[in-house]
Amino acid sequence: RNLFMPAWKGDDGEEEQEEQEQEQEGSSDRNSLTSPVTPLTPSHQHGEWEDAGEAITPSEDRDGFGMYRHPAVDMEGGRMQAAITSFLILSVYYRTLSPSISGGDSGEVMAAACSGGPAHPPGYPLFVLLARGAMSLFASLGENKAYRVNLMCAMLTAAGVYHLHRAARVMTGSDSSATLASAMYGLSPLIWNNALQAEVFALNNFFVCLLTNLLVRYLARDRPSATRVAFTGAFVVGLGLTNQHTLVLYCAIIVPSVLFSGWRQLLLPSSILKCTALLLLGLTPYSHMWWLEGCPIPWAEKEGHSLGVKFCPQFEHVPQYSWGDRRSFQGFLNHFLRKDYGTFVLAAGGTEVHGKPVSLLEGIRFYLEDIAGPRLDERRRGHTKTYEGQLMYIGIPFAVVGLILCLYGRPLQRNLAAGRVLVICYLFYIIVFHSLANLPIKVPLFLAVHARFWQMPNSTLFLFVGIGFEFLSRRFADKAFALSVRWAIVCLCVWLQFVKNFDKQDQSGNYAVEFVTRTAIETLPPNAILLCSGDLQFNPGLYLTVCENVRPDVRFMSLQLMSYRWYGLNSSIKWPGVVFPGRSHWPDKYGYSLQKFYDANIWDRPIHSYGGNRPAENLEKLLEDPSLNEDQFFHFTWGLTDRMIPTQVEKINIHQYARCHAKAFAPMEEWEKNGSLPDLLKYGEDTWEDQVVREFYITYHRFGHQLMEYYRTLPGETCGGACPEGCDCDYSMGTTLALARHSYQKLGDAYNNYTAWGLEVPFNWDGAVHQNLGTIDEYEGNAVGMLYNWWRYLDHKKDSDILSNVISRKVTKMKMQAIGTAPYEPPDPFSGG
After folding, report:
1. Which residue numbers in the chain have pLDDT < 50?
2. Per-residue pLDDT tens for 388-423?
3. Please, are residues 3 and 73 in contact by the beta-carbon 8 Å criterion?
4. Which residues, 6+ apart, have CB-to-CB distance to 720 below 8 Å?
5. CB burial class (10 A; 0-12, 13-18, 19+) of residue 314?
């Protein structure tokens, strides 16, 4: 019995065929449940197989994996239902769309779109071109360019939902099953989240769903000689590879399957030539930013140096932002193959940079846990969930049954080949990707970065959901009420997916990343150089400076990119006033250290750093450069950034810099007072918004630490008024302690807030205080001085808070250790003792 296929159209006359077509357009689900199926039978008189009036020879029956033994499927039904589903999903995206820039790579790819240069490897030229077009096309719809590109990504994801619906409709012959698969896919947490922000994953999801639709239609085609869908697929493959190269893991299975299915037609020389031409045509977006705007011609190189300017003087202009060497063929090849990151790895750097990655089995376990859900937020006591699983439990039995049916295959009939190919694609991607991924995903933020690549196999997973639902509903639903019951179950599942995920995915009021980055840039002194370290600091700032023209006088630079030779060449052309004292920031004879860079520029421009290894107790650890130390440069907190000051300056007025910091940080404090900090109960530890909250509180830690370090150097009350350079000791000590107390009071308040909300503190506040106090082992020579100064700090405190208890415990413990008594066991700070 055919469990999936809609009514087979026999050769009983045109009237019956037209009547069946009209009935099928009205209610495809009812047809698929009640109409009889006419099996294909051999005609012994002619030695042929009868297939909808077209003769298929026994040799041709071996084409298409032998699928022509089974009845044809309905390829055209369900268009209206797919369009309605896609439109409703797009409406949800529009309601929850992010209004501004987000974390991750979105700022960088939009900066590339604004300036016309390539983004980070492999360049994403198609996304860059589409984003550039969206910025102009939707100019009247959004308040900034980021919103317009966000809207484009929402539309691309909704288009992917449409194609997944069409593929599921062909596989199941049922509109209700196709709606369940596509709508639950569109409202799953990963897909929904990436549809609301300017990320290349939205475009990749569109291509995966489109290729799935083309694959299903080609392998179940009515005529063995049909090639139009295959040729379309060749062009789509090329076009998709100009966005994200992980698509090749699906193409490695799909392309051979298509060639095997249609080998009689597709392996002809003319067909091979046509497929190759269409594939190359799809790759042409790479020409926009490399072969047209650059000069990557092999004969324009000599001894490893590009002669592009000599042979291509019209390309002497360098975009405001451009990633990579655009003036040599080798630069293009390195970028296309991601050699700067590693061709077959997820992130640049090994275990010494990111830490030890998880094994293949651990990675697959994390993926399966994310499917079933919920993902756990380790900050929360009891490990409560940060969001529901992708399948939200109810989809698990459908997905399992659907996957088994694709392997078993009998109910799928002509769709058997497509089902098995998709199973192989799914398993191949899961195994190969987790074998190559090199991020330690036990770290929540790295897990979120890693999880974005799970969206590709999830499109196939939700297709299994539709197949499994169709099979189970036909097995167990009463035929008299089958149609209404099926649609009721579909609506319930989609509604639960929507309700459970809406609050978490609603980004309509999320300005956190933009506000923090804008504050950091706009509060800088004139003509400053800002050295950024980290995606949260660099990428959003790159968008603001390049696309929104925020502070054009600021030289906005990346510490990581300064290690590449091409970055110095491009930057020296863009910013002739900035001196690069070497080929790159790299420890070789042609490179330069940050000390040399500072010495060459700090006397002409103020230099600030943003990001880095924070909190850090010294400059070397902050910027991870051994050439820097406090004997050469003094660094002080300036709002969200750190100001670098050469020690050759005769006198450093600490209170003047403290006032500068207070002025630069005032917008952040006002923002926090207005309740605009990201909601810690909504944004888990694996989100960029959680990193924004950390950035806010780390600033208090840095400022308080630096004040107490300065306080430790003051002569104290016993100077008798004879302080160096005529300073007012009482004023200096009192002001310093007051400022430090404000910073640590905010940390104490944050500790109370986190614990009151049932959250674990994001990093060790007690350890932050301990860093300032020091230990007997680390500060053996300064133990007495540190002890004395901290006692003075406690004496100036007017009231009691959690920080007082923490400091008292630490100071008392140091005192006990100093006099050689047994370690002191402090009382519980919450007991009121």
Report:
1. 1-56, 296-315, 352-353, 379, 381-384, 717-722, 770-782, 798, 800, 821-833
2. 788 888 889 999 999 999 887 777 777 888 899 999
3. no
4. none
5. exposed
SS3 annotation, 360-419: HHHHHHHHHHHHHCCEECCCECCCCEEECCCCCCCHHHHHHHHHHHHHHCHHHHHHHHHH
Which candidate, 460, 454, 452, places its Cα nearest to that of 424? Answer: 460
Which among 471, 506, 469 has a CA at the least distance from the CA of 488?
A: 469
pLDDT of residue 788: 56
Q: Are 108 and 119 in contact (CB under 8 A)?
A: yes
Cβ-count burial of 313 within 10 angstroms (0-12 exposed, 13-18 middle, 19+ buried)?
exposed
574 token code pair? 């863009």
Give per-residue burial for 109-140: e unless 16+ CB within 10 Å, then b: bbbbbbbbbbbbbbbbbbbbbbbbebbeebee
Residue 281 token pair = 């045509």
Beta strand 555-558 with 529-533: parallel, antiparallel or unpaired? parallel
Burial bucket for residue 303 (CB in 10 Å: 0-12, 13-18, 19+) = exposed
| CA 621 – CA 154 distance, rounded (Å) | 41
Residue 7 has phi, psi (to 5 degrees) of -55, 135
Instruction: Report which secondary-structure segment, H or E, holds 805.
Output: helix 802-818
The CA–CA distances, whole Å, from 438 to 343, 375, 450 equal 12, 21, 9
pLDDT at 251: 94
> To the nearest 10°, the Cα dihedral for 217, 218, 219, 221?
80
E strands, 228-351, where?
Answer: 301-302, 305-306
Q: Which residues pair with 635 in a beta bridge?
A: 644
pLDDT of residue 622: 62
Return the C-alpha torsion angle 294, 298, 301, 303, nearest 10: 140
C-alpha–C-alpha distance, residues 658 and 710, integer Å? 12
Long-range contacts of 142-145 (CB under 8 A, 24+ apart): 142/99, 143/99, 144/99, 144/100, 144/548, 145/110, 145/114, 145/547, 145/548
pLDDT of res. 477: 64
Task: Decide: residue 452, CB within 10 A, 0-12 exposed, 13-18 middle, 19+ buried.
Answer: middle
**Concatenated DSSP letters for 638-671?**
ETTEEEEEETTSS---HHHHHHHHHHHHHHHHHH
Q: Quote the pLDDT of residue 616.
A: 54
Q: Provide the CA 194 distance to its chain's centre, in angstroms.
A: 8
Give the pTM. 0.83
pLDDT at position 92, please? 96
Under 8 Å between Cβ of 694 and 762: yes
> What is the C-alpha separation between 154 and 198, in angstroms, rounded?
9
The structure tokens listed for 777 are 């082992």
CA distance 725 to 267: 89
Residue 769 confidence (pLDDT): 54
* In contact, 419 and 412? CB cutoff 8 Å: yes
Whole-angstrom distance, CA of residue 178 vs CA of residue 404: 18
φ, ψ (nearest 5 deg) of residue 558: -110, 125
Nearby residues of 208 by Cβ (< 8 Å), 6 or more positions away: 160, 247, 250, 455, 456, 459
What string of DSSP letters covers 62-129? Answer: GGGGGGGGSPP--SSTTHHHHHHHHHHHHHHHHHH---S--STTHHHHHHHHHHT---STT--HHHHH
Q: Report yes or no: 525 and 656 within 8 Å, Cβ to Cβ.
A: no
DSSP 675: T
- Distance of alpha carbon 702 from alpha carbon 185, whole angstroms: 44
**118, 289 Cβ separation under 8 angstroms:** yes
Q: H helices within 124-223, ranges in order?
A: 125-137, 145-172, 175-186, 189-195, 200-219
